[in-house]
Write a structure and sequence with these properties.
Blueprint lengths: L25 E7 L3 H12 L4 E5 L12 E3 H10 L2 H7 L1 E3 L1 E6 L2 E7 L11 E3 L2 H12 L5 E5 L2 E8 L2 E8 L2 E12 L6 H5 L4 E16 L8 E5 L8 E6 L4 E7 L6 H4 L2 H16 L9 E15 L3 E2 L2 E3 L5 E2 L7 H21 L6 H27 L4 H14 L3 H4 L40 E4 L2 E4 H6 L6 E7 L7 H12 L4 E7 L11 E3 L4 H6 L6 E4 L5 E5 L4 H11 L10
Parallel strand pairs: 1-2, 1-11, 2-8, 5-13, 11-18, 22-23, 23-24
Antiparallel strand pairs: 3-7, 4-7, 5-6, 9-10, 10-11, 12-15, 12-16, 13-14, 14-15, 16-19, 17-18, 20-21, 22-25, 25-26
């Protein structure tokens, strides 16, 4: 039990399949695991009109705070899923992180140094709150069946689907699924049943997590200490969470006894030492209450491929990283963001099944990027021998006075979205462009005005969460749209895989009937995309750039959309 949170217990009515034992029970898509990743995938598919069955063996949300930091890109995905506002309102917003060596600050960073983004660099929120918000959203969707206390006991793969044996408190039944999305966590029983493994590195160190309830005047920032006086020879991380809960991570070393270290008589003195150090000699450390304690080791591993026929692995079931850098849940939610639009197209018959191979290749590349950054951070935080420790400490000492050394300090490079520069779904540029965004990049947000109201570009791109391709067409003003541009917009909207066009105008003028016009009144969208009047940018349903043109044509846009759907350039346009 927690003093700041009451765990919900979700209803688990008798499975209707048990009352028709002779029938062949079928589902288009089954998602296993109602953690953040499984819930995100199920909601995403359901919002696109796909019938989804979500199975989870429990009837509540995660025990303990577990996942904590949700990055800007993840918040933008959560906006599209309908829970972003709730997460930001409940969570703790921060952009600044500070790193200390003993008593001295040696490095700091700002996750969002430029203006004009709706979402902050990071929001801290205990995982149980995120899961609760996602469950409440899932319960609003009529084509999403959320089945608690349904445990998948066995899985068989077939060429045309998957057969699952499902155990419930009232009995077991068989369920045939066209597709199975696996989000059942790091220990993934399904992955093990199928004889699939992970490769990577397990780090020989242990960390204590302590969630502490207190009213303290620490800044709302990420603070990381190397070799602090209150925990000499080790590292400490401090974060603020919702409801006056503070997360403190203490490095323990590989030889620490996990069970002994979780006992209050070991935990409480460590916390008191940190708080007393913060207040200084003679200062009164704040009173606190211990909320939750865990000891963990960590690893950086992944599966060789995330797609195995009709079985698709996501989140911790597919890849695992150490917690430094907040890359676990963020990466898993972005897995779902990448997967679901592709699965929707395949289910609709407008894209080949091979499109789902690009889910694996793109997200394996993202996992490798996360593993590389996480491994580097872990090696810096937990040196493996005396020589590497001496080198690390020399870097920290030099960083106090020298800027070059600060770039070498690594207390966890924070999660950023992967730029899919090498994706086969990208259409290469034929024109010259400047700026950081290119095919494969996620779209950066920008302030826009629509129908006289201020808003945000990504909100209009994501609109109702139903997915789909979007063309950003930059024009001087809405009334300057030419006949050829109008014909292109109408033709793209009428295709089997439609493209919705948003006009991005320099000036606010009366809007033509039926046109969606966004006024780029701060010129941020044009600046971030290096776009001038006449340019166009094609966005995938997950808001990554698929192609861009200085002067678009209907044929070029259709060819780029076909390529993004996994079709050959010469194939008929969907």
């Amino acid at each position: 039990m927690l003093s700041t949170y009451t765990y919900p217990r979700y209803a688990a009515p008798r499975a209707p399949e048990l009352d028709a034992p002779e029938a062949r029970h079928h589902a288009r898509v089954v998602v296993v695991g109602a953690g953040p990743v499984g819930l995100a995938a199920a909601i995403d598919l359901a919002q696109q009109g796909v019938a989804v069955t979500l199975l989870d063996e429990d009837d509540t949300v995660s025990i303990g705070s577990r996942g904590l930091c949700y990055a800007k890109r993840t918040l933008e995905v959560l906006d599209r899923l309908g829970v972003g506002d709730a997460v930001v309102a409940k969570g703790v917003t921060w952009n600044v992180g500070r790193t200390f060596h003993r008593d001295t600050e040696v490095f700091n960073f700002n996750l969002l140094p430029e203006p004009d983004h709706e979402r902050p660099g990071m929001v801290n929120l205990q995982q149980y709150w995120l899961e609760q918000f996602l469950v409440e959203r899932a319960q609003q969707l009529p084509n999403l069946q959320l089945r608690f206390r349904h445990q998948v006991s066995h899985v068989e793969r077939h060429a045309d689907g998957v057969v699952l044996q499902v155990a419930t408190p009232d009995g077991a039944f068989t369920l045939h699924a066209d597709w199975l999305v696996v989000a059942d966590g790091a220990r993934s029983p399904i992955r093990r049943q199928l004889g699939l493994d992970m490769e990577g590195q397990v780090f020989r160190d242990r960390f204590l997590i302590a969630d502490v309830v207190m009213k303290a005047d620490f800044p709302t920032e990420r603070w990381f200490w190397f070799d602090p006086p209150f925990h000499p020879g080790q590292s400490v991380l401090l974060h603020r969470e919702a409801d006056n809960v503070w997360r403190i991570d203490f490095q323990l070393g590989w030889d620490a006894d996990p069970e002994a270290e979780k006992q209050p008589e070991r935990v409480l003195p460590r916390i008191r030492a940190l708080l007393q150090h913060w207040k200084g000699a003679g200062g009164a450390a704040p009173a606190f209450e211990l909320e939750w304690v865990s000891v963990y080791t960590f690893q950086c591993r992944r599966m060789a491929a995330f797609r195995h026929g009709r079985v698709l692995f996501t989140g911790d079931a597919a890849h695992q990283v150490s917690p430094f850098g907040a890359r676990g849940a963020n990466s898993g939610i972005q897995d779902a963001d990448n997967l679901c639009w592709k699965l929707k197209l395949v289910l609709d018959g407008t894209a080949p099944e091979s499109l789902l191979d690009t889910y694996s290749t793109e997200r394996v590349a993202a996992a490798d990027e996360n593993i590389l950054n996480s491994t580097r951070a872990t090696d810096f935080i937990t040196p493996k021998n005396t020589a590497s420790r001496d080198l690390r400490n020399a870097v920290l000492t030099l960083a106090r006075e020298h800027a070059f050394a600060r770039t070498l300090v690594n207390s966890g490079r924070l999660s950023v979205p992967t730029h899919l520069a090498d994706s086969p779904l990208n259409t290469p540029d034929t024109d010259a462009w400047d700026g950081a965004l290119a095919p494969g990049s996620p779209l950066a947000d920008a302030p826009v005005r629509h129908a006289g109201r201020d808003g945000w570009l990504l909100r209009h791109v994501g609109r109702d969460g139903s997915g789909g391709f979007v063309l950003l067409l930059f024009v001087p003003s809405a009334d300057a749209l030419g006949a050829a541009q109008r014909a292109m917009i109408d033709a793209l909207a009428a295709d089997a895989v439609p493209v919705r066009t948003l006009l991005v105008a320099e000036h606010d003028t009366p809007t033509p009937a039926g046109a969606a016009v966004l006024v780029d009144h701060h010129r941020r969208a044009a600046q971030r995309l290096d776009a001038s009047p006449g340019c166009a940018v094609l966005l995938r349903p997950d808001q990554h750039l698929a192609a861009r043109w200085r002067v678009p044509t209907l044929a070029a846009v259709r060819a780029a959309r076909a390529r993004a759907c996994g079709l050959d350039a010469g194939a008929p346009s969907p």
